[in-house]
Amino acid sequence: MVEFDDTFRQHLRELFVWRRDVRRFRADPLPDGAIDRLIETACLSPSVGLSQPWRFVIVDDAARRRAVIDDFKACNADALNSYAGERAARYATLKLSGLEQAPGHLAVFADKASDTGHGLGRATMPETTEYSVVAAITAMWLAARAEGIGLGWVSILHPDRIHAILDVPDTWKFIAYLCIGYPEVECDRPELEQAKWEQRRGAEEFTLQR
Ligand SMILES: Cc1cc2c(cc1C)N(C[C@H](O)[C@H](O)[C@H](O)COP(=O)(O)O)c1[nH]c(=O)[nH]c(=O)c1N2
């Protein structure tokens, strides 16, 4: 039996407050086994029917990394073109990936074909497979921060292209491409808020009572 005291709860709260999406990484390499350790923690996450549908691809190959970066650049250029005026000017100033600097690259997929869990919980909501993978990524994000490691989620990518670059099974659905490394700075406010793109709102704005 494990008990968590007030001091632990306070630290846990701080972990949530100080977790960031990181796009600016220091050059220092990650310690040996750091990504494997984060994956191991992620695998403790809840999953629909205990299906554990997460699939992780550690991307070390320089040519594959370069191809991912090229895809990001193409998608980000398209995204910039979808804005106009002041919003476009502001978008152009944002740094939206640390792909070039991050010592670790990790792609995460959901295996839509796995029968693990025997379909429990998925019959009416097949998308719970993807939700389970996102739950695992969130756990990894927090576990990383607890070790001083930053994680940045990149979604400005073409899923089909990532599939081809990484040569993974067709039944795997692309969920996330994660940059992993030591952050240049620590902050308790989202970078998009600091850049005046959007501001974080409080719980009262998202809660209804019925
Ligand atoms: C599903 C998903 C996808 C993305 C993100 C997040 C999530 C959950 N975020 C990070 C996002 O911008 C960030 O979480 C918010 O701005 C809040 O900041 P903090 O995470 O609190 O630092 C993100 N950030 C970025 O710079 N490029 C990206 O492509 C994405 N994509």
From TrEMBL:
GO terms for molecular function: 5,6-dimethylbenzimidazole synthase activity; nucleotide binding; oxidoreductase activity, acting on paired donors, with incorporation or reduction of molecular oxygen. It holds the Pfam family Nitroreductase. Residues 18-182 form the Nitroreductase domain. Its EC number is 1.13.11.79. It comes from the Bacteria. Keywords: Cobalamin biosynthesis, Flavoprotein, FMN, NAD, NADP, Nucleotide-binding, Oxidoreductase. It catalyses: FMNH2 + O2 = dialurate + 5,6-dimethylbenzimidazole + D-erythrose 4-phosphate + H(+). Homooctamer. This is 5,6-dimethylbenzimidazole synthase. It comes from Bradyrhizobium canariense. The lineage of its organism: Bacteria, Pseudomonadati, Pseudomonadota, Alphaproteobacteria, Hyphomicrobiales.
